[in-house]
Specification:
There is one protein chain. Helix content is 40%, strand content 26%. It has 16 helices and 17 strands. The protein is α/β, with parallel strands linked by helices. The relative contact order is 0.08. Pfam families: CinA, CinA_KH, MoCF_biosynth.
């Protein structure tokens, strides 16, 4: 079963706002076995809206529109829907009472106007969906087996209508298959290298299970998607295929997306083993510490961080020897190791992570090429650093380095 989403509004097309509504709707539909076939954004323009509706009806059983339901002249969705369904607007007494109540209770400083009361005008063929959080009602049409749903574009109003009214109505009106996803998270190997390892396994997947590779900043998510009429059969099949993966990529697997993130896995391992951690961050600017301390209970294992962005801070606070910086440069394995070793000693922890590198756009205090990164881990038995080249895009260099540092740390603390 397929759905289409049509977002209406010039503000989306000129980049004034980001369309988060479609992502929310897609996720909620997917949960009940409805696949989104296409997402279309159109102007507040009668011809464009009519064309989008006509094309969508040929491809989908559910068409969900958002936007264009305000009280001003530029919001033309209701009038266009009347033209599409050969209908007329009528006043809905329930909607009018709700609008008047909202103004009386929450907008008493602004008198209700005739324009506000016009929100109660709806196409006569529509089933009104009560918008408890706003003045523009949702509307449901059913014609020739296709459901057309019109919703306000305000995200929190739309979300409430989707969850409490639209989804239950789709479940009631349509027979749907089951859709199941399982996402395995990997770190440390690129998409093509993983694909080579999994080629034979992927070729032998049942036809109702599809594999998608989702690479992003040092990690690759592997999403298994299954679709069919029997939910338990899908669960069993996906689980059986998942059980084959550790033998193929067990060294880079870090659980599933539903279970925990890499930083959550690090936090869990440190907590369970009673270990403590400190960080000394240069170009990553405290992002490793930030991700760890964003988790509840971080105080059980995380003791603190020194964000030694400037070279003098590395020397004066972390006591990195000035001659080491002079001999090897601030972006070097030797400096990374000194940072990790000294912050571990300073904060009296079992482990420490240090980052130093050149994220660009200029070379700064080192001649190292942009993208050159050194990550060091200090342990109870020693310290070691590794060199990486993270590309040439500043934000990506930082994010990839954070992920790689957490990956290296998890491998290290898992040895105990």
């Amino acid at each position: 079963m397929f759905a289409e989403i049509i977002t209406i509004g010039d503000e989306i097309l000129i980049g004034q706002i980001v369309d988060t509504n479609s992502a929310f709707i897609s996720k909620e539909l997917n949960k009940i076995g409805v696949s989104v076939y296409q997402i279309t954004s159109v102007q507040d323009n009668r011809e464009h809206i009519l064309q989008a509706l006509e094309e969508a009806r040929a491809r989908a059983q559910v068409v969900i529109m958002t936007g264009g339901l305000g009280p001003t002249k530029d919001d033309i969705t209701k009038h266009t829907l009347c033209e599409f369904f050969n209908d007329t607007l009528v006043e809905d007494a329930g909607v009018l009472a709700h609008v008047e109540e909202l103004f009386e209770k929450y907008i008493s400083s602004t008198p209700i106007s005739d324009m506000n009361r016009m929100q109660a005008l709806v196409p006569s063929k529509a089933t009104v969906l009560h918008n408890a959080l706003g003045t523009a009602p949702g509307m449901w049409f059913k014609e020739e087996g296709v459901a057309f749903v019109s919703l306000p574009g305000v995200p929190y109003e739309m979300e409430n209508l989707i969850v409490n009214q639209v989804i239950p109505k789709i479940i009631e009106d349509f027979e749907r298959p089951y859709i199941l996803h399982k996402t395995i998270v990997t770190y440390g190997l690129g998409e093509s290298a993983i694909a080579e390892r999994l080629e034979q396994w992927e070729d032998q997947l049942p036809p109702f299970i599809k594999l998608a590779y989702l690479p992003n900043l040092g990690k690759v998510r592997l999403r298994l998607s299954a679709k069919g009429p029997d939910r338990q059969a899908l669960v069993d099949a996906v689980e059986a295929e998942s059980q084959k993966l550790p033998a193929l990529i067990g060294d880079i697997m870090y659980g599933t997306e539903d279970e925990q993130t890499l930083e959550e896995l690090v936090a869990k391992t440190l907590t369970e083993k009673g270990l403590t951690l400190a960080t000394a961050e240069s170009f990553t600017g405290g992002k490793i510490a930030g991700q760890l301390t964003a988790l509840p209970g971080a105080s059980a294992y995380f003791k603190g961080s020194v964000v030694s962005y400037a070279t003098e801070t590395k020397i004066n606070v972390l006591k990195v020897p000035k001659d080491v910086v002079g001999r090897y440069s601030v972006v070097s394995a030797e400096v990374a190791e000194a940072m990790a070793k000294n912050v571990r000693s300073l904060l009296k922890t079992d482990y420490a992570i240090a980052t130093t590198g050149n994220a660009g756009p200029t070379k700064g205090d080192s001649d190292a090429e942009v993208g050159t990164v050194f990550l060091a881990i200090a342990t109870p038995t020693g310290v070691h650093a590794q060199k990486f080249n993270m590309g040439n895009h500043r934000n990506r260099i930082v994010e990839k380095a954070v992920n790689k540092a957490l990956e290296l740390l998890q491998k290290e603390i898992s040895k105990i």
